[in-house]
């Protein structure tokens, strides 16, 4: 058996793309029982034969043979654990069979298959040429690289200088070894330019580009990526500009996966670089005929997902057919747009004053697309920045100094752009065949319903009216899906239909014989309930949904049973049993803690009423009876006492209540509203009474200066209570007595 000796395995987060294990301690490399002699520059054939058959005998060869079948840790942790152990054993066997020089080249690698491939490729001879003709000095690192016998350790100083941006050291190395400027200097097949780009040193990249020919800029690493592709991935706009200026063909070079640099930049959310690369990428590379439109469609999908809607609009203007083309992952722009309610007005959460600003601002979608500069040569020559166009546009609106208004303007512009994109897609959909529509549109619409994307759903139905009556594999139409996912904005659209249309939507049963009332009786998705504070309010919202749907379905539906033989009310009770218990627990916890505070206030204020500041006179009357502050003290003390008593009684009522389902609709929330309101008033009145009592005692001019800090300190507990509990009180009040989430005053939209 193989002996591991002192070497241990620790996690490695080097980011090289291979998981997880690396030797923490490298043992001294000596001949072992695995091989007769360790690997050197000249004995690879003999060494590889010995090591291979050893690994086969230890059932480790499969780990070294392929690097494409590594188990997914998230999906199959057990299989990954087995692979991880075998990988560590095989890697260790290879390492202890190498000489010190060979080990130095592979010690950072964590995947046995990669190490085996590297050593195998390193041993293969390449074509020979006369170094005098090539201009490379014999014996230099570049000459060694050209013959395939590359000792990458010779480039460590250069790589370190590139990573640190030390141009003087880099230039000195190139002067001694001129052929290394364009040579590959790392096991990953990277040139000096690759490494400088990855490090993000603009000045170093600019100097390297001056030394390289346009053809040299096209060199790819082992992943098939040019330096421009790396700049796109990392969002380095100035670096990308520098390289494009020398060779505009770089934007059209695909990596090993057939992806353009602009697509990579957009996928990473690098907006400025995406704009730059989009300007320089030839339109034919994005068109539907180039690779079946995969790059164009993928770019369009990513632009929608990352909210680069001005670019998306420009793409659709040039290539309308991309609107209905699937990207490389089989996703359509329509599907992504449906999953983004935040791109539309209904998905925005604005305060009333923000809504007022929103209504006052005007946007021009056509002008926004002018940000895409077509004359790219002038763009780089003059050093323009797209943000300048934004500034000019906002200056014209005279709102460039208002950040909030600027953000609202951008938001409204984005909404207008999304509507225009949706309109362009709808135009293309109308020219498609019915079977294709069924595949693309239905899936997108039902996803939009689940997300509450109102504008998307209404525009799609206006464009393709049959969608209003379509259903999924369970026989549920869009309003059934809206109810299941508690999307009230979609459900409210039901009231914008005629009576006949409404009955056509309400009447069907799904494949499980559930009617609309059965569906609303089912528990809401957790992501919807999580948006409501407190289990009691969650239960209240569920009851409100049930009552709303119950009010629009025919009375007969209340007694209909589904395929399980259950009525809607029975389904509701069964599905919400746990939520009722959680709501009861939540309310009792609030009532218990609040009762303690209120009872303490009652005790304090009752005692304070008979412990009068400064005492009484000979007749038993308060000495400061005629003082205004004393009157304030008495009144605030009384208010605090009565309010705290009311609060105690309300919370006791909550603790002794019957927690039936229907009690959560109004009765229990009302008690909680009264209890919390009374407690808030009692705390505020108690602080006023305290300050008034001090004012009575500190009437002298020498002590008045103390009053201000005391009053400020007295505001602290009131403020804390307001910050912690007042939002809850407001939410309960609005949820119970507010206008509600349902709107029956919907204008006819279909």
From TrEMBL:
Residues covered by the PGG domain: 584-695
SMART domains reported in the protein's UniProt record: ANK
Keyword match Membrane: yes
Keywords, in A-Z order: ANK repeat, Membrane, Transmembrane, Transmembrane helix
Start and stop residues of the ANK repeats: 188-220
Pfam families named among the record's database cross-references: Ank_2, DUF4219, PGG
Keyword hit for rRNA-binding: no
Domain of life: Eukaryota
GO cellular component: membrane
Domain (DUF4219) ranges: 39-64
Transmembrane segments: 590-610, 630-660, 672-698, 710-734
Protein name (Swiss-Prot/TrEMBL): Uncharacterized protein
Native source organism of the sequence: Vitis vinifera (Grape)
Lineage: Eukaryota, Viridiplantae, Streptophyta, Embryophyta, Tracheophyta
